[in-house]
Amino acid sequence: MIDHAAKRSVLALSGGVGGAKLALGLEDVLPAGELHVLVNTGDDFEHLGLHISPDIDTLLYTLAGKANPSQGWGLEGESWHMLEALAQLGGETWFQLGDKDLATHLWRTHRLAGGQALTAVINELASQLGVASRVHPMSSDPVRTTVHCRSESLPFQRYFVEQRCQPEVTGFSFEGIGNARPNREVMTLLRNGAFSQIVVCPSNPFVSIDPILQLPGLWQALADNPAPVTLVSPIVAGIAIKGPAAKMMAELGVPVTALGVLAHYCRHYPGLVNNFVIDASDATLASSIDEPGVNVVVASTVMKTRDDKQSLAHAVLDLVEG
Ligand code: FO1
């Protein structure tokens, strides 16, 4: 195993819970401050007058060691008095906001109303929570994911939380993406050659990573960058490690395998992926992957323990030095 202390920074692209696991492993094995995470904000929404950034908060809480371990989202040791009182008033309680988590939403909404950019507010929150890595919203401009289903189109959180991902999906759109500017600091770091590797975490390709890559100019900037791009498959042995990715692939007619994941990225972002990490249980698929320029790597990608997260992080980082 290589000592990663001497190397440059790493940029990880992430959605919420699944991506946060690998981000935590990367943070553990990299020198402090060398991990930058560019996070999806397509599932941000305005709820009860508050600006909620679920994937950003999942990253912040996970890297701060404060995440609820069973849910992956929200804070550990949470209480629910506000939600109970809201229910008594007849308010909407389908989206669960814990009492401590509420402070994050109140603070963010207050700072945004005062004219701060989302990027600056997240920097403040990260520093208050004691997060050593850099957590970057993909953009400070609003992008909102809509899930198109057979019978209706739903804002992302209505589909994901209220409808529990049950409606059959036919596609996705990202409102506002055409005018959204990619995170300026990350674009500058890319231009300056600050990253030794770019890692696409095992997050949902359609609703977590696509909104990031479809920001104007972003995926081309990643593809043109000399730092290799390593994609970790979110599909293992035909199932999604976390969330509805496998269900969505089946409904969209994409093969529910690691091959289907790679085909999605290669079709929409040609030349982006240099390394593709698949799980050991999918090792037999390796010989059937013949995407030009893609190096296939087999590793243990299921991250149940902290050790699992660190081992996968080492396997990914070793690719660049190896
Ligand atoms: N996910 C749920 O499945 N149910 C919830 O009630 C819920 C509340 C919630 C509150 C704050 C927050 O930061 C995240 C929350 N999530 C909840 C997760 C959220 O829906 C994420 O967008 C998904 O996990 C997809 O990344």
TrEMBL record:
Alphabetical list of Gene3D superfamilies matching this protein: CofD-like domain, CofD-like domains
Q: What is its EC number?
A: 2.7.8.28
Q: Name one GO molecular function term.
A: LPPG:FO 2-phospho-L-lactate transferase activity
Presence of the UniProt keyword Magnesium in the record: yes
Q: Does the keyword Transferase apply?
A: yes
Q: Which UniProt keywords apply?
A: Magnesium, Transferase
- Look at the named UniProt entry and state the broad enzyme category this protein falls under: transferase
Name recorded for this polypeptide:
2-phospho-L-lactate transferase
Origin organism is Candidatus Marimicrobium litorale
